Amino acid sequence: MKAAPGLTVDTKTWTDVAADADAVSSAAGEYIKKHIPLDKSPAECKEWWDSLSDEQRDEYKRAFPEIIGNLDGIPSDVRDEVNRENLDILIGKLSGEHGERAKTQLDALKSIQQQLQDNAAKPLVDPKEPPMYLLGVSDEGLGRAIVAFGNPDKSKNVSAYVPGLGTALDAGFAGGDVKRAYDTAVDARNIDPSSASIVWLGYDPPQLDAPLDPVTLVSDTDVMSAHDAEKGAPAYNSFMGGIAATNDHKDLHLVAIGHSYGSRLVGAATQEPGGIPGADDIILVGSPGTGVNHAADLGVGKDHVFVGAAENDPVSHLPSKKEAVAGTVGFFGGGPAGAYLFGDLADQGDDDLWFGKDPASEAFGARRFKVLDGPMPVVDGQGLTPAHSNYFNPARDKDPVSAANIAAIVADRPDLVIWDKYR
Prior knowledge:
An eight-stranded mixed beta sheet has the order 1-2-4-3-5-6-7-10. It has a two-stranded antiparallel sheet with strand order 8-9. It has 13 helices and ten strands. It is globular and about 65 Å long. By secondary structure, it is of the alpha/beta class. The N and C termini lie far apart (57 Å). The longest helix is centred in the last third of the chain and has 27 residues, at 321-347. The model is unreliable at 325-348 (pLDDT under 50). Helix 7 (100-121) packs parallel to helix 8, helix 8 (171-191) crosses helix 13 and helix 10 (227-246) packs across helix 11 (261-270).
């Protein structure tokens, strides 16, 4: 929006725009179904977009920004342009709402907006700074946001990272998960400048309402169910199909990354018909299992499945269902010590985690790369799962080893990876 002299476009204005946009979308529903290929593949959406004239594209961008900005198969620069307007509209909409959910999402969106503005100015200081793209944004469910560093359509190497347990469109996502994509992009571009990294929050991850103890494992059906992963897998595959369709490189190197419960979603995505479109490599970090028992079952070849598991990350040690039941019995019989004793007795050395075979085990058959052990839960005074959050962090006191290994895989340079033995 552009204001006439003497007028300003403020939050109240965007709140009005949000209401108007909803009205337009509702009134134009049938028109959308007839003309925008919502039920087509990303490749078909790209073909449709390419067939339009510049004037037609401008009309669609103005009339349906919330659809065009989130439609897989639309070029990244177009999605970014439209989603910056969507961001203003959403901020206006949420500013007019009450409740904790609206405030939480509003704070996250304002943070992302500020990062976009700051990033736009950075090339003036550092030409090597990766440009930031907003490839998706919505207040659906727990919130949606897809943020890239580096242009996914112009880069040879592209990774799309799926966050996991406890993630939502909040300050933690805007300040933490977005930074993970940024750090991965910077490190990968130091190896190969033609690299881009994406964080994909296109689903509702399970939320943690209690510590990760044996009681939680058998009582929190949301956290310990594969439902959210399996529900989100088709959306992830659609997005990856869109990247494969719009990328300019004939030899695109596309990497799927799953962290925590996000690795369960990546696993579910591989089991959809055709697997993950265009994926060459898969990286699993802090994984409680993928839903399959062998790396070869993920569809990219076992030598293209890479695993990082910190010794002190309890999520990567989540017990199998059998162990969890035994641990619960032990918990009520002897507290935490009893839980672990009974859990160990039930283990029988089968390398099973909650969602299948341990990806870091020899039986799973992936390639395990070196990560630091990380802080011990509770003992080191950093909470229950400090090591679980360090995989992408290149800071010296976090895990520069893991971050460097992930970047090398993203940049298609596995020869630079430091490997680790199976556990």
